[in-house]
Each structure stands twice: as C-alpha cells, then as structure tokens.
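== Folding the chain ==

***
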Amino acid sequence: MEGTIWRFGVVANIKEYHIGKDGKEYRGTKPFIPGTKVYIGGKGMDSISDTIGVIGRNRFGRIALEWIPVNCLENIRTQRIYKPYILDMIRFQEFQEGWKWWGRTASDRKETQQFVERLRNSFNS
C-alpha cells in the first residue's frame, strides 16, 4: 500500500479522568494527556483485552505506540486516516511488527465499524 493517501482506521480520544486498578482517579494516561486523539490498531484482534495498542502524540509531542487500558478511551469511531506521519507509523508497524491495519476497501470499512461495536460492547460488559 505504498503511496496510499488514506486508509480506514479506528480512532478514539483519551478520557479526561479514569479509575485505575488501584481504585484511584487519574487524569489522562501516563503517556497521553486528556483529549489526545489516538489511532487504534486492532484488525485481526479476536477478543478485546484490558489493554490495547494505540498510536498518538504523547505528552512530549512525539508520535508513539503505547499500550493503554481500554477503559481510558472515549468517543470511539471509524475514520479515514490522512496524516502522513500516522500512515508512516502504521506501515512501519505492519512491516516490522506484523500488525494488521485496515486498508481502503468497503470490507475494511465494514470491519472497522464491527471493531468499534466490539470495543463499545466491551465497556458495557
């Protein structure tokens, strides 16, 4: 998919506050400030675990891949990804780490929508 100018993806924002495993309330996450837009890498994930891999601009302004608790996400949605630096990071993850991301087809769009529904349902469980 070299030279692709966009692809489908799942994006979310980091919650303002969340409850940690210790029962305390935290603002944002350790790597991300509240409201940060993150890109979720989940194609091929059969089940939703407690943590999920995301790409986003960290507290230091650098693009980073981090694992964060799923309960720190809000406003989960399907979106076209256009930003070249995010697309470069996605291609790197596909090539180096073997991650699976979505492409530009109608079936990819449908898969992203199904993944969003699975994530939303994991919050209600």
